[in-house]
Design a protein that fits this description.
The complex is a heterodimer of chains A (about 450) and B (about 450). Chain A is an alpha/beta fold. Chain A has three domains: about 140 residues, Nitrogenase molybdenum iron protein domain (Rossmann fold, 3-Layer(aba) Sandwich); about 110 residues, Rossmann fold (3-Layer(aba) Sandwich); about 160 residues, 3-Layer(aba) Sandwich (Rossmann fold). A five-stranded parallel β-sheet of chain A has the order 12-11-10-13-14, sandwiched between helices. In chain A, strands 3-2-4-5 form a four-stranded parallel β-sheet, sandwiched between helices. In chain A, strands 7-6-8-9 form a four-stranded parallel β-sheet, sandwiched between helices. The model of chain A has no long low-confidence stretch (mean pLDDT about 95). By secondary structure, chain B is of the alpha/beta class. Chain B contains 18 helices and 14 strands. In chain B, the strands form three sheets. Chain B has a six-stranded mixed β-sheet. A four-stranded parallel β-sheet of chain B has the order 3-2-4-5, sandwiched between helices. The longest helix of chain B has 27 residues. Chain B is globular and about 65 Å long. The N terminus of chain B is likely disordered. Classes of the chains: A alpha/beta (about 450), B alpha/beta (about 450). Chains A and B meet through strand 1, helix 2, strand 3, helix 3 and helix 4 of A and helix 1, helix 2, strand 3, helix 3 and helix 4 of B.
Chain lengths: ~450, ~450
């Protein structure tokens, strides 16, 4: 196989760090995400996010200009915070930095401390809401690092020692799901509820980025994790944190373990039987009760459909790309149904994807698939020349490749810019896996049908 | 001037006015207010949108991945040939590049991409961070140009150095550097350049067809379906026709100064402006092209005869409905106000991201009493205006769409992502059809806004 060696990036398979932070902040009740940088960053990210969710996505900006780049952006940041407080009545402002402000050396935590002090001294009413800041220079890591960094910053800056549960409060778990769809999040909440467990899900974009039609344009969309809930996360029975590449990293879950001794279940995104089983096991352990029957039934139906579908799928070659943890979870699922992932690629480079892919495929594949971290679509396309995949699994940006290869694209994750309903795509749990399975089987059947000149109407 | 809406920032009150309430007095062209969620973009965005449609050039974004990722194939700028512009190239700067400088990476990236794609020219865009770390973009471009034998043009588009308009300027400068070098043989006396049309959904092809029927030769498309070689010989044209107020006006002025090419401001949106644009050009060439006016009149007449009965059908149902407009440049808003009038509709709100005082004065003059005129607005203001004016359809771009939809208001995308041509006479029909299909949809009966009334 030709070695692909180059320094330029063509059609990147990742987004920049502050975008992830903005998405995470959007999942907190009353929060306004704010970027400390030039105006374009906020506008570009808004447009990108809106095109997927088809929902308002306000991201404020400190709108730095040339003189601020020279003399520092502190004054603009403070003015921006004040304006957001006054106009939006924000319950929390999440400030993410950009490459510009990281490089000119603005000390955002210090500026925010100063701002708080100035507010207090001025006797400002209402007082400043929680102000969470996170460092997200775009030149280091992808949107997923930005997302996780923001979640971690929220927990780190809001969950102080001593803010534990009150007596008599019912048992609950912390669910740190990462970046999955609003539909996924709604379903996960239902599952946890079925175990008679309370749940603090952080972040929770299920309503804020998939809300109802409204009579009035809410300044801040309803929903999201309440700040009061975040503050009591230290009193949870356990934390369930999705994302294999996060293991042993200083994540939000790790902070809660370290600071409050909340036991941490590091899990994969629950797609496929085994990863979903692990999620249910963690819930059984945390709740002390077995999985409710309806979920057992759902699992049973899924296994039944694995059997019904197996012949259509066996040996089909798949290319899976996108965010590292999503790719790992999808790969774990695909190998269960007899599909052979031939390439697992991501723009991210945690350095852990290869070992995680090996773990989730071991026992089901003789040799693990090729794994490419830090890949762009140029590399993926080059590799595909030899791999001749039957299908692609990933977000919308693989459409070009799918068309070139004449191989169906199963659209998952973010962004879905060329189809309707990306925010309502269900990926997780037995039910989400079932939906994915149905879509994959049907895509293959549709392709077979289209490629055949028999015109058969019976599979 | 109304100050009642609680969503309006004190600092922004003089960027909003209502016709009929006091004399014209509008403050604009200033920096966006921090924390106000402006709908504006940045310098880079301005440069990128103008140069993007040049289809046989390499467009390399020197910066971290975001700037390239968010501008990857986002516009419907079609090409009749090469499609290099639809790929997203980035140097994807990493932390070590920030510390040690990105020049080496830029040099290698440029070299390998030029080898790989053999473009006719390369545009290298500077982003915020490049302005800070001080990479010498121009020097690298010169070096690569000499080595590869193609024009390699730096675009000084550091995001923080202003708004979109400064970006237009940077793009114009880059393009201007291409001009004057190409062979102009074969260009007749009726040669024109089309400036400020980006061939969204194939619009420039519609316009070029009209010109052809008038006997006019198009030398360069600037920039829709654009080609480097055409730009290089664009100085051989007798006239520049310039659409879109901000984007390419500076280039037209530079070309006038350097090559003595006069320019006309035109608009291809709406029946009135489309026809007047063609007549303007015909009048310009009449002294050397007798009969051109007759040809043009015939063209317009033919198009209108086919168009009017169809427009009337839409007008019947749309008359009296209320429209709101919020677009990037104000020039497009002028045409839209007239287009809505043609449909019997009433424009109750009009605004732009980057209009000038003259632009707003013109809007003030052509709109009806009570119309809200706004500069550099934001979601809170726009949503409150939509509600206050009980708007039926909102014309804007992707960022405005969810504001309209969340409130249960119809919407028409008049921005780069449109898939239907809206220019030309046929474009007016498409526009009417699109407005009609949104306004007349039954779905509005079920939204809270209507159910409540």
């Amino acid at each position: 196989m030709e070695r692909v060696d180059y320094v330029s990036t063509t059609n990147g398979c990742k987004l920049c760090k502050p975008l992830g932070a903005c998405l995470a902040f959007r999942g907190i009740e009353g929060a306004v995400p704010m970027l400390h940088g030039s105006q374009g960053c906020a506008t570009y990210m808004r447009r990108y996010i809106i095109s997927h969710f088809r929902e308002p996505m306000d991201i404020a900006s400190s709108s730095l200009g040339e003189k601020h780049a020279v003399y520092g952006g502190g004054a603009n940041l403070k003015q921006g915070l004040k304006n957001i407080m006054n106009k939006y009545g924000a319950g929390l402002i999440g400030v993410a930095t950009t490459c510009l402000t990281e490089t000119i050396g603005d000390d955002v935590p210090m500026i925010i401390r100063e701002f708080r002090k100035e507010m207090e001294e001025a006797g400002n009413a209402p007082p400043a809401p929680p102000l969470v800041c996170v460092s997200t220079p775009s030149y280091s890591g992808t949107h997923m690092e930005g997302f996780h960094a923001a979640v971690r910053a929220v927990v780190d800056q809001l969950c102080a020692k001593g803010s534990l549960v009150e007596d008599g409060e019912s048992k609950f778990v912390n669910l740190l799901p990462g970046f999955i769809s609003p539909e996924d999040l709604r379903y996960l909440k239902e599952i946890v509820e079925d175990f008679d467990l309370g749940c603090v899900m952080l972040p929770d974009i299920s309503d804020t980025l998939d809300g109802p039609a409204l009579e009035d344009y809410g300044k801040i969309p309803a929903g999201g994790t309440p700040v009061s809930d975040i503050k009591r996360m230290g009193g949870a029975a356990a934390s369930l944190e999705f994302g294999h590449t996060l293991a042993e990293k200083p994540t939000a879950g790790a902070i809660l373990l370290e600071r409050f001794n909340v036991s941490l279940h590091p899990l994969g995104i629950p797609i496929g039987l085994r990863e979903t089983d692990a999620f249910f096991s963690a819930l059984e352990e945390a709740s002390g009760r077995p999985a409710p029957e309806r979920h057992e039934l759902e699992r049973g139906r899924l296994v039944d459909s694995y059997v019904d579908a197996h012949k259509y799928l066996f040996g089909k070659r798949a290319v899976v790309y996108g965010e590292e943890d999503l790719v790992i979870a999808l790969t774990a699922f695909l190998v269960e149904i007899g599909i052979k992932p031939v390439l697992c690629a991501s723009g991210g480079k945690s350095g852990r994807m290869k070992s995680c892919i090996e773990t989730v495929t071991s026992g089901l594949l003789e040799t693990p698939p090729m794994v490419e971290e830090g890949a762009d679509f140029y590399k993926i396309e080059k590799l595909c020349e030899d791999l001749s995949p039957d299908l692609l699994v990933g977000h919308s940006k693989g459409y070009r490749l799918s068309k070139k290869l004449d191989a169906p694209l199963i659209r998952v994750g973010f962004p879905i810019h060329d189809r309707f309903g990306g925010q309502r795509t269900l990926h997780v749990g037995y039910r989400g896996t079932q939906r994915l399975l149905d879509r994959i089987v049907n895509a293959i059947l549709e392709k077979n049908q289209e490629d055949s000149n028999l015109g058969y109407a019976y599979m | 001037m109304s100050t009642t809406a609680p969503v309006i920032f004190q600092e922004r009150q003089d960027q909003i006015m209502r016709k009929g309430e006091g004399a014209f007095d509008m403050n604009c062209n200033r920096d966006s207010l921090a924390g106000a969620v402006s709908q504006r973009a940045c310098v880079f965005c301005g440069s990128r949108v103008v140069l993007y449609p040049i289809a046989d050039a390499l467009h390399l974004v020197h910066g971290p991945i975001g700037c390239a990722a968010y501008t990857w194939d986002i516009r419907g700028a079609l090409s009749s040939g090469p499609e290099l512009h639809r790929l997203s190239f980035s140097t994807d700067l990493q932390e070590k590049d920030i510390i040690f400088g990105g020049e080496e990476k830029l040099y290698r990236a440029l070299t390998e991409l030029i080898d790989r794609h053999e473009p006719k020219a390369a545009f290298v865009y500077s982003t915020c961070i490049v302005g800070i770390i001080g990479d010498d973009l121009a020097a690298i471009c010169r070096k690569v140009a000499a080595e590869k034998g193609i024009p390699v043009l730096p675009v000084q588009s550091e995001g923080f150095k202003g708004n979109k308009r400064e970006g237009y300027g940077a793009a114009c400068k880059a393009m201007f550097n291409l001009m004057g070098s190409g062979d102009t043989s074969g260009i007749g006396p009726l040669g024109i350049n089309i400036l400020g049309d980006f061939n969204l959904a194939g619009e420039i092809w519609i316009i070029r067809d009209y010109f052809e029927r008038m006997g006019i030769q198009t030398v360069a498309n600037i920039t829709g379906d654009g080609r480097v070689a055409d730009l290089q010989r664009a100085h051989g044209a007798a006239l520049n026709v310039v659409q879109c107020s901000g984007a390419t006006m500076e280039l037209a002025k530079m070309m006038k100064e350097a090559f003595g090419i006069p320019f006309l401001r035109v608009s291809y949106f709406g029946v009135e402006d489309m026809a007047e644009s063609l007549y303007q050009i015909a009048r310009f060439f009449e002294p050397i092209a007798p009969g051109i006016m007759e040809k043009t009149k015939e063209l317009v007449k033919g198009e209108l005869t086919a168009l009017y009965p169809k427009l009337q059908e839409f007008r019947r149902e749309l008359a009296g409905k209320k429209a709101a407009i919020y677009v990037g440049g104000a020039f497009k808003a002028f045409s839209l106000v007239k287009a809505f009038r043609q449909l019997g509709m009433q424009v109750v709100l009009v605004g732009s991201q980057t209009g000038t005082e003259e632009d707003y004065k013109e809007l003030y003059d052509i709109t009806d009493e009570g119309t809200i005129i706004v500069d550099d607005s934001n979601p809170l203001e726009l949503s409150s205006f939509l509600k206050e004016k009980d708007v039926d359809v909102f014309v804007g771009g992707v960022k405005e769409r969810p504001i309209a939809y969340k409130l249960g208001v119809g919407f028409c995308d008049h921005n780069h992502e449109r898939k239907q041509p809206l220019e030309g006479f046929i474009g007016m029909l498409n526009f009417a059809r699109e407005i009609h299909s949104s306004v007349m949809s039954p779905v509005w009966r079920f939204v809270p806004r209507r159910k409540a009334s």
